[in-house]
Model the fold of this input.
Amino acid sequence: MTRTRTKTSFAALAVMTLLAAACSNVSSSTPPGGSGSASVPDNSGTTINIAISPWQGSAANVAIAKKLLEDKLGYTVKTTNIDEYAQFPALANGTLDATLEVWPSGHAKDYSKYISSNNGVVDGGKLGVIGQIGWWIPTYMVDAHPELASWEGLKQDASMFQTAESGSAGQILDGDPSYVTFDQAIADNLGLNLKVVYGGSEDAELTALKTAYASQSPILMYFWTPHWAQSKYQLSMIKLPAVTPACTDAAANDPSKYACAYPRDDLYKAFNQDLQTKAPAAFAFLSAMSYTNDDQNGVALDIHDGMAPADAAQKWIDANPTVWQPWVDAGLAAQPA
Amino acid sequence: MAVPLREIQQVADLTLVPHVPVSPWRRRAVWAVATVVVLALGMILFSGGFPDSLTVDAARPFNAFSDWVITHQRTTPLFVDFLVPLKDGINAAVDHLVLQLERFTWLGVLVLAAAIAGVLAGWRMAVLTAAGFLAIGLLGLWEDSLHTLALVLLSVGVALAIGLPVGVLSARHPRLESVLRPVLDAMQTVPAFAYLVPLVLLFSIGTTAAMIATVIFALPPAIRLTSLGIRTVPETSIEVGEAFGSTSWQVLRKVQLPLAKPSIMLGVNQTIMMALGIIVIAATVGYPGLGLSVYQALQDLNVGAALAAGLGIVILAIVLDRVTHAWSERGRVRRGSTAIRVFGWSVSRRVGLIVAVLAVVAAIVIGRQVLRQQIFPTGWTVSIAGPVNTAVDWITRPDEAIGRITKHITDLGVNYALDPLRSLLLGLPWWMVCGGAAVAAWAASRRVGLAIASFLLIAAIGVFGVWDIAMDTLSQVIVAVILSVAIAIPLGIWSSQSDRVQRVLRPVLDVMQTMPQFVYLVPVIALFAVGRVPGVIAALVYALPPCIRLTDLGIRQVPAERVEAAVAFGATKRQVLRKVQLPLARPSILLGVNQTIMMVLSVVIIAALIGGGGLGLAVIQGLNHDPGRGMVAGICILLLAIVIDRITQAVGQPTARKAVGTEHRIGWLFGPSRMRGSAVQVGVQEIAMDPREEEA
Done:
């Protein structure tokens, strides 16, 4: 008895609810971007899914692309926060449409596996931002110990960076374990008594840096530019042996052979191979998208300081129409009539 | 170790106030000296670690598989015709559900949830649900919560659709049961991180991978408790049904299922709680929601944001837990009653239902036409993240006393506990470590089979080539467990002696158990920087509740007449505790220790995110560069977990049967201890369901 009644009540509840939703359908929200200029094409039926990697520079790229794709080209943009590792498989099968910042130094294998061998991913061109990964120390360290300007100095000074966690070796603080790094291999192959300790995230490194900086104590870390912290703190990169083809080739199949500096990274974009047919305007826009380290740093700093990514992007868009207008024009040119 | 303890236990059973003979202590001393001598000899005479010559490259087949998937996923029918459409279908379903919820507007969703709770579980639950949803809105977590709720509801639906029939089948076919048991064990023991690699390969990132991970994790209790419920239907009831000529199907539908309902409902409840427990993992494969907020807060070291999102999860858990609990209770108690009481007014159910429907319709119409707010208005929200972060910043100012203290603790922990223990484990020859596991297994269970299995499983870790990092993980687990138990048992005893303490502790423990384990990582890293120590601290704190609870429960369950008898013999309170209550509570306490160990292991694995290293780091890095190695590390976590779990379970088992009423009936059925924890609670109807003992 009771059970039947509960069931009936449920059915009634469900029906009424759906009815109510359907009846008041009239006021359903207007599509986004309706208020803009008349030239915005209606692509709202097409959803572009863009990956956000776990660092703020990436959040900056995506916030800008999302805003412009929605407001100027009329697409629906979805973002997915996802670690680097999963991006290439997801691009290959179309779950993701685009990722806007790939650091080539860490993804040589993925490039050959997915892009060169035509496995579902296409190279989306350069982002314009130039990256440099390396071993960084606060500049006050170099002032006090000039030999630290280059890696040979670490031979005698490694013990300066000892912590409980690294034991008798000096500590290199790495960030998110999902980042692609060669630090332990570099240290071992150069005969440096250093041990990699993973901080777990970019912000763990920044916290450690902040603490060390406040007391002017030693810290050695895997870090990179572009990064907003580069303008907040004075950091110096330790000179490692120059990158040569011999060095990168040796490490191509066995990463533990790596024994030189990180190469300069021309950050690039990567798209699903069907993006061009699915969304030609978005493809053209994203392919054309390119800006500088300073552009990215500014937006990333705003996001870091607590501004919502969309607001930070809007602020940059308002201030830099000459930078992004060509991207939008490229998109509009590719828009099918 | 276990032998003398068991003797004490037997004496305790016989004489109430046991006379503890001197000899066990002497025997323990002999054992201890012998152990030290053997270990020292092992370190001196043999080289430590696992020889490379015995390892195999287990990663290669996985990597080959991964390469095959990459090159074939756009052409092979398995992907094109099955996996991809399946993935797209699930993604669309969840997106649609979220969209639909958003179209109901926040007011509509809130009233709808309250109405469902009200119809199912009474007006009190309707009020609780409304308050919970309002709190979520006020905390600024509305949109995240909708995503989380959609994933949890669909995953639980799928888990039940699979779990209930399989549970019924396995209750009827003992052979299926014996095949399923180790599979279910594995599903509950492997940290979800370990199976993300193949999931991402097969289903890519996003909703589907998240949902499958959730289902895998949440399925076991649905199967186990359904099976248990059906099995424990009294034989006589079934015979009566058969005597009236019912078919087997009719017996199932009209006799077994109704009688098994309490157990099945408990399974539903547990399934929901576990699904909620894993949503942070879901975020790592790209599913948005509260889990993602926690995960991102970890990446940004934002303690306040992590806490806020964690609170959101706790609120959802409390609402879902209490509503399903009240629903099952109500079905039992008020069967047949057609009236509900609201503030003393008796209202017929039909009227209640009509009111509920009208309220929902009105709320949706008001939400859409008047308020026009799909999402909870941001103007009303209160951010707790800001104040919390201010407090954290103040605490962690550089060069403050707290910073010096925590640094000191870190150094102590590394230099005097973690490093020596790891050196010991790595310094011993591998067969001695495996032999140690075998001896422990034999001492605990007296079963040669378990001893041999323990030896082989631990040796397999070496064969797979991750011996060193596995020993690193093991050393962290041991340190965290010792500390955790050393804190939990006294607290449990204290709580058992004072109702006031218990009343204060209970809600704290509830919240602690419902917070995702990831939330624990954020504040410890702010306090203790990075490394193994913060991971160990997070693990030991996270693992406290079950041990405190089960110690408390075990002592409170000691029959009053035994305590009275001891008091009559002139025993002081302390003597009663030491000689009567603690010995009799031993099975329950050991169960708590077992749960603590498994929970510590799960946190030590994810502590790789904050510098913990070990097997967890291998899994996370495996996700990136070397999926095969990640998979292998995941499998080794499973091996380690199974060995530890089986040994610690065996320690408590022989006596557990005597002490806890339903335990012996349930014990053989429930492999992993954590389910047995819940089973104990079913048996005594003592503790409200512990939501999330089972996080990966």
